[in-house]
Specification:
The protein is of the alpha/beta class. Helices cover 48% and strands 18% of the residues. The strands form two sheets. Strands 1, 2, 3, 4, 7, 8, 9 and 10 form an eight-stranded mixed β-sheet that branches. A two-stranded parallel ribbon has the order 5-6.
């Protein structure tokens, strides 16, 4: 039987441990003569869920560190394209970058599969991957390439196609000139669908559509709306070809120089901000659809997704740098 004395001792022990953690945090904060300032770069507009989540992350980190870490958010490729900022991080700059798995695949090839077409159905399935030993191995490989992944649970939403004509079938996809980021998975996917991928930075998509450099673009609905692409293109085909997630990464060298308490806060708050962001696209999609429809946009929902899925299945064999069997391993995780 547990005695009252044991209960009292246990409570005291817990209180002392909590006090010690607070004192450790306070000691670290007071030890910082100058605030550590970190820039957070992303390619999206200030009207998008990602930017709101990035500001949420920055506020929480500053609050928890007593102002000793201050994060300033730079949207809309103000610090350069995603490829440019990834290179800045790799070279050791004091920057946190919004991370797309396709860009990380340039350094850790297996990351590319997270962007695979019709791989997952929703963010619940994606969380299975993030909880797996396989994902932990990816994060370690990223450290070997110079990156510290802070989180990858920032749900971006299903990606759809905007153009001035519907894209219901493979025949309607054939020959379509569509903007894609400079990421092999995107290029291979639209090649498999019979389209012609044209690589542009996201900030160049609006003038690209306006000047007929491309016929179409693709992104989650809040991003299509945030970039005002509906001002030029008036048909959205609900293809859901990717269920996209983003995350945050920074230089491993910069991260390792921080005190352990600071590292812990960055990791925890990045994940917390991801959970916060996950609610935003789902809440915004209905209002975005209504707003776009009020501006004359037509939504095409009777897309032949099954034929798109069959056509893109061969994409998973197009990456010789992937670890052998990685697709099968990922599918096994998802099937659990």
């Amino acid at each position: 039987m547990l005695t009252p004395g044991w209960r009292t001792a246990s409570l005291v022990k817990g209180w002392v441990a909590g006090l010690a953690a607070v004192m450790l945090s306070a000691a670290w904060v007071s030890a910082q003569a100058q605030p550590i300032r970190i820039r957070l770069a992303h390619s999206l507009s200030v009207n998008e869920p990602f930017h709101e989540a990035a500001e949420f992350f920055a506020r929480n980190v500053e609050q928890r560190t007593g102002g000793s870490i201050q994060i300033q958010v730079f949207p809309s490729e103000q610090l350069g394209s995603l490829k440019d900022t990834m290179e800045m991080v790799r070279q050791g700059s004091n920057v946190i970058v919004s991370t797309d798995s396709g860009y990380l695949a340039d350094f850790v090839p297996d990351f590319g599969i997270l962007n695979g077409p019709y791989l997952i159905r929703d963010r619940v399935e994606f969380k299975k991957l993030l909880a797996s030993d396989w994902y932990a191995e990816l994060v370690n490989k990223a450290r070997g390439a110079g990156f510290q992944v802070l989180a990858f649970n920032w749900y971006f939403g299903a990606r759809h196609i905007i153009a001035n004509r519907p894209v219901r079938t493979l025949d309607e996809m054939k020959g379509l000139s569509i903007r894609v980021p400079p990421v092999p998975m995107f290029i291979e996917t639209f090649n498999a669908l019979g389209a012609r991928g044209v690589t542009l930075n996201f900030s160049e998509v609006y003038p690209g559509l306006q000047q007929h450099v491309v016929d179409a673009a693709e992104a989650p609905l809040p991003s299509l709306y945030g970039a005002k692409l509906h001002e030029i293109a008036k048909v959205v085909s609900m293809t859901s070809h990717f269920i996209a997630h983003l995350g945050l990464s920074m230089s491993r060298t910069v991260f390792d120089r921080l005190p352990q308490e600071a590292q812990k806060i960055l990791l925890e708050e990045a994940s917390k901000a991801g959970e916060h962001m996950a609610q935003l696209p789902e809440k915004r999609e209905a209002s975005v659809v209504a707003e776009m429809e009020s501006k004359g946009v037509k939504f095409v929902r009777d897309v032949d997704v099954a034929s798109f899925q069959r056509a893109t299945s061969k994409v998973y064999g197009a990456f010789p740098k992937w670890t052998p069997g990685v697709h099968e391993r990922v599918r096994t995780i998802l099937a659990k």
